[in-house]
Write a structure and sequence with these properties.
Number of domains: 1
Structural class: alpha/beta
Organism: Pseudomonas segetis
Largest sheet: 7 strands, parallel
Protein name: Glucose 1-dehydrogenase
Pfam families: adh_short_C2
CATH class: Alpha Beta
Family: Belongs to the short-chain dehydrogenases/reductases (SDR) family.
CATH architecture: 3-Layer(aba) Sandwich
GO molecular function: oxidoreductase activity
Distance between the termini: 32 Å
Shape: globular
Helix content: 40-55%
Strand content: 15-25%
């Protein structure tokens, strides 16, 4: 690895599993001190932290239930304390809004509660996490939001999730303009089909797998490392002139 992020601090929400875990590991490999959040499984978060430290990196885990907007203030109080202890400052260089929850559910079986829960994590939480992070952010920092190819090409089986990801794309554009004077870049990475436990049931269906791969220019499901590589590029100095972009990292799904 290039160690392009030595001396940087990063917060990765939802960093205990799937894409978030691999992003946290990649940023740590590049030299960043990584704070990762988890909700349901402290054991999984501790496993990620242990793996990062064993590889020579620096990381710690913080609990945050991002369905509850009021949990965000407590998250940043704890983050401040941890960063000051480690670095003597609560300055933040990189924020990756990755946390998510299941977006399955169509028009017929949706409820106000399911709508609120999906939007709370995928749209409201990133907004207020960014709001809280700004007073800690150094000039020239990086904000990277995890979107989805469904934000631009929605599926009828997941309309609420698709709407929430479209909201993240819009937020990315709006904040890039606002934060440009501070040289803070704001971008979104929009994966397509990636091998994670959230779509394990889909991957058990051989016909669906064949159809998805046939609709993908590169002919396969993505791996979490494919997404982490794009995030690491945007977080590095190499990505300094890229902002207000929604970068689809889908292997060319449904071109």
């Amino acid at each position: 690895m290039s160690q392009s992020l030595i001396g940087k601090t990063a917060l990765v929400t939802g960093g205990s599993r799937g894409i978030g875990r691999t992003i946290a590991e990649r940023l740590a490999q590049e030299g960043a001190t990584v704070a990762l959040t988890y909700n349901a499984s402290k054991a999984a978060a501790d496993e990620v932290v242990a793996a990062i430290r064993q590889a020579g990196g620096n990381a710690f885990a913080l609990h945050a239930d991002l369905v509850d907007a009021h949990a965000i203030a407590a998250l940043f109080e704890e983050l401040d304390s941890e960063l000051v202890d480690r670095n003597g400052s609560n300055g933040l260089d990189i924020l990756v809004n990755n946390a998510g929850n299941s977006g399955w559910g169509g028009l017929a079986d949706a409820s106000p509660e399911s709508w609120d829960t999906i939007f709370a994590v995928h749209a409201r939480a990133p907004f207020f996490v960014i709001q809280s992070a700004l007073s800690r952010f150094v000039n020239g920092g990086r904000i990277i939001n995890l979107s989805s190819s469904l934000g631009a090409r929605p599926l009828p089986v997941v309309p609420i999730y698709s709407m929430a990801k479209a909201a993240i794309n819009n937020l990315t554009h709006a904040l890039a303009m606002e934060l440009g004077p501070r040289r803070i870049t704001v971008n979104a990475v929009a994966p397509g089909w990636v091998r994670t436990d959230m779509n394990a049931a889909v991957r058990e269906n051989a016909e669906m797998v064949a159809a998805i791969e046939a609709d993908t220019a590169l002919g396969r499901f993505g791996e979490t490392a494919d997404i982490a590589a794009v995030v690491a590029f945007l977080a590095s100095d190499q990505g300094r002139w890229i902002t207000a972009q929604v970068i689809e990292a889908s292997g060319g799904y449904k071109l």
